[in-house]
Amino acid sequence: MLKRMPFERPVEHYDERIYNIDEQICELLKLRKQLSNNNPGFPPFEYISKWAETFELYEDFLKAVFGTFSSEEHFKPMVEPSDFRKHIPLLKSVEEGNCFYTVNSIRQYSNASVVTFSMDWDVTETPPTSNNHSYFELKMGEQYDCRMMNGGSHSGHASTENPLNEWVPAGSS
Q1: Measured between alpha carbons, how far is residue 89 from residues 99, 107, 119 in Å?
Q2: What whole-number distance in Å separates Cα of residue 105 and Cα of residue 91?
Q3: The pTM is what?
Q4: In 3D, which of 166, 168, 162, 167 has the Cα closest to residue 147?
Q5: Residues 72-81: pLDDT tens digits?
Q6: Cα(105)–Cα(55) distance, rounded to whole angstroms?
Q7: In the chain, N or C: fewer CB atoms in 10 Å?
């Protein structure tokens, strides 16, 4: 299963005098998220250069900070499926280009469902991952969250397992 490694504090030191500043940074991040309708974009490089000079920061550091804003969803907690209930066979397929996509089955648990998905292609053709098809998203509506749990591939075949569960808003884990 693809799990995020637990984050460990890189140092034990924390200067309590900056607590209020850190709290204000969090407040500003929330405000930025609200004003942008959760579509953070990326400031023009001219702005970053100006801010780096004005605030005595490195441009690449600011680029990394602003680049991180667009990946917040990767940090949402993921539900671990538990209490297996049953398998539901689906075998629904579609062919597009030189690929054959199949939703094989769903495993139901008490707190989530796991959708198994596979992709097959002719091994004599260019693999689909070389055509910017390196991942897939299953969207079931705003109230659900679905991310790849595990997967694998070999010549002509790739498969993934994607837990589908009710979405948990940030801050309510």
Answers
A1: 21, 9, 17
A2: 6
A3: 0.60
A4: 162
A5: 877 777 778 8
A6: 54
A7: C
